[in-house]
Design goal:
By secondary structure, this protein is α+β, with helices and mostly antiparallel strands. About 35% of the residues lie in helices and about 30% in strands. The protein has 10 helices and 8 strands. Helix 4 packs antiparallel against helix 5 and helix 8 packs across helix 10.
Length: about 350
């Protein structure tokens, strides 16, 4: 009987001690007891991996896009990676990347300095497993654009990617933008002019001198301008490597440089006077895809903040069921490769 009492007293004492443990102590004990396969297990096939991490992370970001303007709020899809250089490690600390991304982006504005800070934090947190880190932010950049002639404005979206790679302490940053524009085929324009000339000869060839008023009236008829050149919506994909002391990402500058070189950006709010001006701009800037690529190259060559660039233009043909494409790079030995 005495032994039974002693056992009951001992159980009661143990329960009292358990009740005295704080929730945090319970959590620590539970965490210690939880299996950690990633840190303790060995891979079946030991080898290093180029990149390991996460993609399509949804993240609100306060973007610095202009040194003189306030940040804008965007929603980005983020990719976050480190490499795995320890062949005997099962994997990386993936949750660390996510938590550090949240920590650094929650209250700070997103500029080139912030991008570097996050990458350095990734590298430090995986110093025993990794030698490099990578981050990419993908989002639509919305710009307010005035109409060509009327007092209206509209909004245009530009797909943007901003990425950074940290390799052995050296930072490489890249800005990529996709810019729509209009292109009118020079060959089609020449063929259309020839048909109009032939129609003019057919209508007036035997009349001798023709008055200005008669010609002016003739030019206004659909039966006279019986052929028009074909044009199409086109796209310029631009990648630039960023250097220098600027903290912001020059998204607006890059868009302005490319649209200024091409001179036929697509329009948002359009009245008749805007459409007429758009037709005039297309008529004065006939271009093949090769012409468009050369115009952009000349514009980017004059920008010292871009240490390298890669350009691809796609003319989404209205004549053909395929696209016409031209690609050009700056041509550096250790730079972007001219790969489609």
């Amino acid at each position: 009987m005495r032994n039974l009492v002693n056992v009951l007293q001992l159980r009661s004492l143990n329960k009292a001690k358990e009740a005295e443990c704080s929730p945090s102590q319970d959590n620590e004990m539970n965490q210690e007891q939880m299996p950690d396969i990633a840190s303790k297990a060995s891979p079946r096939n030991a080898m290093n991996l180029d990149w390991v991490g996460m993609s399509d992370i949804e993240l609100p970001v306060n973007l610095i896009h202009d040194q003189e303007e306030a940040p804008i709020r965007i929603t980005a899809l983020v990719q976050a990676y480190v490499d795995l250089v320890d062949p005997n490690a099962k994997g990386i600390h993936m949750s660390r990347l996510y938590l550090m991304l949240n920590e650094h982006m929650a209250d700070k504005t997103f500029d080139r300095d912030t991008l570097k800070e996050v990458l350095e934090a990734f590298a430090e947190s995986h110093h025993d497993l990794s030698s490099k880190a990578f981050l990419e932010f993908e989002f639509d950049y919305i710009r307010k654009t005035p109409s060509l002639k009327s007092d209206n404005f509209g909004w245009k979206g530009y797909p943007v990617r901003i990425s950074g790679t940290l390799i052995k302490g050296r930072l490489h940053q890249q800005l990529q933008v996709r810019i729509p524009y209009s292109s009118t085929c020079p060959c089609s324009a020449a063929l259309a002019r020839q048909l109009i000339q032939e129609q003019f000869e057919s209508d007036f060839g035997g009349q001798g001198n023709v008055s200005v008023e008669t010609i002016q009236e003739w030019l206004g008829k659909e039966t006279s301008i019986m052929a028009t050149p074909h044009s199409q919506r086109s796209y310029a994909q631009i990648k630039v490597r960023l250097e220098g002391d600027r903290k912001d990402f020059p998204i607006d500058d890059l868009i302005n440089q490319v649209e200024g070189a091409l001179k036929t950006p697509v329009q948002a709010a359009v009245k008749r006077e805007d459409e007429q001006e758009f037709a005039r701009l297309n008529g004065q800037n006939l271009m093949f895809c090769e012409d468009a690529a050369r115009r952009i190259k000349n514009a980017l060559d004059n920008e010292p903040d871009y240490t390298d660039y890669w350009v691809r233009v796609d003319h989404v043909e209205s004549l053909h069921p395929h696209n016409a494409v031209s690609i050009v790079t700056k041509g550096l030995d250790d730079g972007y490769k001219p790969i489609p």
